[in-house]
Amino acid sequence: MSSDPTITPPPPEAPDTDAAETSEAAHVQFSGVHWFLTGIVRLSYRLWTRIAAHLFPENSRMERLALALNISLPDKLNMSWFQE
Questions:
Q1: What residues contact residue 62 under an 8 Å CB cut-off, 6+ apart?
Q2: 11-38 pLDDT, tens per residue?
Q3: Which contiguous run of DSSP H or E holds residue 33?
């Protein structure tokens, strides 16, 4: 067989690039503006969902009209998996 190859360690002054990349990737900048704006979007969608549920009930003439006018409605609730 061949002799064991020797592995030379990196010089002591060379920085560990993997550790530097990991520490930078783990740091996430918190943005209060982003948090506030996404909160407004979430609350608006929640409000629209409640309004749409009353104005456009499932399988109604109003729902068909909304779909014909390309008004985006919230997803339909599918409870077919639920058994009593």
A1: 55, 56
A2: 887 555 655 555 556 677 888 899 999 9
A3: helix 32-55
